[in-house]
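Here is one chain, start to finish.
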Amino acid sequence: MNGFIKAKLVSLHHIDVLLFTTAQMEYNPSFTLFIDGVKAYKPTIIRRTANKDVYLFRLELKESYDFSKRYFIAFMNFPLQTIDISNVPDFKEFDQLFSYDGDDLGNTYTKEETSFALWAPISPSVQLLIESDSGFISYDMTRTDKGVYRLTLKGDYKNKKYCYLIENNGVCRETPDIYAKASSINSQYSVVVDLSEIEKMGTVDFKNADIKMVDSVIYEVNVRDFSEDKNTDIEQKGKFLGFVEEGRKTKGGHPAGLDYLSYLGITHVQLQPIHDVNNVPEDNPKYAYNWGYDPCSYFVLEGAYSSDPYDPIARIKEFKTMVNKLHKRNIGVIIDVVYNHCYEWLYSTFEKTVPNYYFRKKKDGSLSSISGCGNDIASERPMVRKLILDSVLYLFKQFDIDGLRFDLMGLLDITTMNEIEKAVREIKPNAFLYGEGWNMGLQIPENERASADNADKLPGYSFFNDMFRDIVKGPTFRDGITVKGFANGDVNYYFGLEYVMNGSILDLSYRHRFLDANQSINYVECHDNNTLFDKLTKSNPDDDESMIYERVRLANDIIMLSFGVPLFHMGQEIGQSKLGLDNTYNILKINNMNWLQVDKNFEMVDHFRFTIEMRKNHLSYLHKTKPEEIANVYKFERLDNNVVKIKVATDDYDDLEIYINTLNDPQLFVFDDYRSVLVNTAKDNLILKTFQLSPARLNVVYKSKK
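Its structure:
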């Protein structure tokens, strides 16, 4: 018979058969169901429609579809047709039937045996392919409750490579294990490792583990970029271990690497993604670069950061060593995690394991890509939520990290985020949890998105405050790159400045955004977009380089003297440039820490260090968090010369005042009594009655004891 036939499962009891043929058709043709190659029965036709040579039949099954078996439809002399079950994850019964809450997915190793467990509920068969002395051997896995396939192999399989051969819709595809903790070079295979070796390394107590977020100073840094520059004596450049080498110096003899972080006095590093990424060859990373916002695993660490990417457990040990050494220096570790999108969906481990489950869809059935960075992860689905939660708990339990920064957090759902917080707080009560709260998750209801607009529903989370960013330095994106903000010299941002310096928690020129100051991540630069230096250069073309550096320092000072959580990007303290480029996620060298500029601008480093010390230990009022505590601390006034004066109600100093001059001319002040300018940690320094405020400068003055 001429034509073609397609069959699709549309519910647990119904199959739709689409038939195209030019042959004459009977009104009630006969279809035959085959199950696992054996003729079963003739399903009942309960609906029939026809349009010229196209026919659609709905068939009713005698019993619910059994996903452990293979189903085919036979009709006349057409070849047996595999029944397409790709829509099954969207069935209303799917999650109830198959959601699994066990903690044994992945592999569980002992010297005597290794057990494997894979959630593949719509697959009729799964095979384990595992390395042996004579090549890879295939083993059939056993389907158990909730669609979990299991196999236990006797013997010692330590460091053996493996993958799964998973059948879906009549097609078998090889894939690594979603839950594996280690992989071979470039993620080709998963690997069995003995995680007890990591546990034996122990942990180092982080003395600041109990501080509030407003007590911290967070420093965003990329593992590779921090040490890759040639102008230090760091040996393992671009590696986990290179990040924490001690006693290292710049060409000019200043502290480099770990010693530099300690010198600054920051409390936490926020590491750009460390999970295994698709786009960097681990065996030769010098020819490719990527920030890491396209992870191919939520458990495996990036091998390019390891001293030996061929040893699957080396990267795990070395990252644990890195965390321990940072803790020993009293620096907390926050990991930037990407649970919101996947650039390549079709060949991802997710899609190969359970097709059409892990990715969010639009109403028309096409994949959602609101981020513009790839296909959105369906965090609202129970087993996706479980995968994310299990990944989070692995990071905290295995590596003793101190917090998470969620990339594009607004794409995730509130329920998932609150479950993460609850689980994390049981392990580390004061862990830092925050993310980008842009309102982006358009395929889920607005009141269910983990965005800053729903900050009241996520009281345990903090959010990147883009209003702070754009008020202080002006619009961020390309069409506004030449537009000034307050620190660039536009004093019309005065009212906005008052709002953001009060943590965006008071009803001032704008309605409050956050419940308390802990929720406001105050920043003007991060890895995305232009550096602060480049933004200022483009918005202030008449300023020379020295004035641009003054404005960099001014913007940094405003962050440090604002209520909320100060966050700085690596190199921001020295006015680092990316040569005017804004999207440098895959450009070699351009993101490297410029250690020559550390030498050049070490006075800026020392000033940055001083302001951290002042915020942490000498300006106690900045540790307040509640609106009622903060409401009457700052009193803003715009003076006739366009200097902003902020009178501070505090017991730290007598008559403490902040003066901010964003213009290019110095301003002279004459006081009735003696004042001191706060330039270091000594409380009696530069005692004077006449005070000149330099261009693009912030100064703090207080009443002298003289």
